[in-house]
Amino acid sequence: MGVVFERPKALTEEKFSYCPGCHHGIIHRLVAEVIDELGIIDNTVCVSSVGCSVVNYQFFATDAIQAAHGRAPAAATGVKRASPDSIVFTYQGDGDLAAMGTAEIIHAAARNENITVVFVNNAIYGMTGGQMAPTTLKGQKTTTSPYGRDSKREGNPIRVCELLNSLDGPAYLERVSVHDPKHVIRAKKAIKKAFQLQVKGGGFSLVEVLSACPTNWHLSPLAAIEWVKQELMAYYPLGVFREAGEVDGEC
Ligand SMILES: Cc1ncc(C[n+]2csc(CCOP(=O)(O)OP(=O)(O)O)c2C)c(N)n1
Ligand code: SF4
């Protein structure tokens, strides 16, 4: 009998440390499948950030470095410029990328650094107990907005793809979701396109993946999927925001 499904080589044997229903695991798998399919495992470097995925260097069977809070795009810039043949990606949550690392992501995009960013937007600080993030929706209850985010007091949520799309620099920006199989397939295509672009020297790419955090949303995994569909996708529309040039399927 032929093997039809197996663990990607770009994932180690380590068990994921994520909560039941968390989408980080799905996104890790998609990244790993893309690395396998492009045959880049030996020269890929993952730049880990802070947040629940802080130990993802244990899960990806690639080289890895750990960046300080929000600094992953700057660290990735250094690795890529020092070692241009490496394929360098950051993996960042919304607290890391859109709060602590706002400056780094904007400048890396503006410079059109030839790196790939996997941006996991779950609208909350997962790792540290569910505090409000820049991406927390208006009215969303968190431990630091217990009555719901009030835009008069806490400002409005930041749409990262739209923000970066105002810059001349970036080559590819897309927002996807992994809440059902159809969207998982689309998300993988986007992640693959982003890595292919880097292989071809195409410049800065960012794929924003809407992601569930059932634990800090205080929802069951299934209810969290509904919340992604009804609430997150309403404020963060899916789609391609920037595509500088066609990337064909083969590398
Ligand atoms: C400058 C600074 N800000 C914040 C923290 C604490 N901190 C570490 S991880 C984290 C939350 C990260 O959340 P996010 O990036 O959204 O990832 P998630 O855990 O949701 O996947 C916070 C607030 C810190 N240690 N230092
Ligand atoms: S706290 Fe949220 S983001 Fe972190 S592992 Fe659990 S479900 Fe995932």
Quaternary state, please? single chain
Task: Provide the β-strand percentage band.
Answer: 15-25%
**Which ions, cofactors or small ligands are bound in this entry?**
thiamine diphosphate, iron/sulfur cluster
Order of helices and strands: HEEHEHHEHHEHEHHE
Overall tally of domains: 1
For the report, how would you describe the main beta sheet? 7 strands, mixed
- Largest sheet strand order: 2-1-3-4-6-5-7
What gross morphology would you assign? globular
Query: Count of helical segments?
Result: 9
Outline the low-pLDDT stretches.
none
CATH class: Alpha Beta
> N- to C-terminal separation?
30 Å
- Spell out the CATH superfamily: Thiamin diphosphate (ThDP)-binding fold, Pyr/PP domains
Q: Based on the coordinates given, report the CATH architecture.
A: 3-Layer(aba) Sandwich
> Radius of gyration in whole Å, from Cα?
17 Å
Task: Give the proportion of residues in helices.
Answer: 25-40%
Mean pLDDT: 96
Summing up helix and strand content along with how strands pair, one would put the structural category as: alpha/beta
What's the β-strand tally?
7
Examine the coordinates and then state which fold CATH places here, giving the name of the CATH topology.
Rossmann fold
